[in-house]
Structure prediction request, 285 residues.
Amino acid sequence: MATRDLPALGGHPEGFAGSMRTDRWWIEPVLTVLVLGAFGVYATWAAFQGNHYYADPYLSPFYSPLIFVDSAAAVPGGAPEHHAWFGGHWPAWWPAFLPHSPAFFILAFPGAFRFTCYYYRKAYYRAFTGSPPGCAVVPTAKSRRYKGETAWLLFQNLHRYAMFFAVLFIPILGYDALLSFWKGGLPWDGGQFGIGVGSLVLTINVILLGGYTFGCHSFRHLIGGKDDCMSCGKATMRLKLWKRVTILNMKHQNFAWFSLFWVGFTDVYVRLVSQGIWTDLNTWG
Ligand code: FES
Prediction:
């Protein structure tokens, strides 16, 4: 009999979720199921809508960068074609059974980054598979045979590559936040400067996403964490950078949740302003 199949000795509980812990350890996995589950359902729904992702000058982060728009379809709340990287002609090869939603071109990248994040793995392994549900809590019988991230879970190594794409999204979302202060386009396009609640919503969004992305364990490894001696006693730029990344890394869990909530809220905000359900308070009048 393998060691992992032996019953625990010493009177410890043995059934799933049994524990001698007296604190409310179950709150964290329950919240994780509720929040991550709700976000997954909402993000999927929002991606399939393909409309109301733009309310001049605000672009939803679920649709940014905007690769193509379907200018022929007159999408409610759709962005004007000059906003799209490749204009307003929807690609002819697009499958007929899928809606013409620009979100489909980009959501896989932040999705893969979050799904394979080292912190989220811990959270959703505990919450969704109970392997184990918490420290010193009995796992499901199946997960007692957990072999680490080998076999099919090897795909989680994708994270180090998804990180490069996630980093690219930050200046793009930063540009969207900048554009959110100019209605009708940037100054040389005749845009008018102002501030709206949406400008603040988009700006907070990129700050939180930046904090999450630049606090990533893989990013910290890339900056210097992989070396035994990155400065060898000297105050190099690399060492300074690594220390700053480490500060973000220590708060990675907080940034993971706050940025998740805020990016979803930003889409809701743009969607409801675009539909005329919410009024955006701003200086444009
Ligand atoms: Fe969480 Fe990389 S470890 S984003």
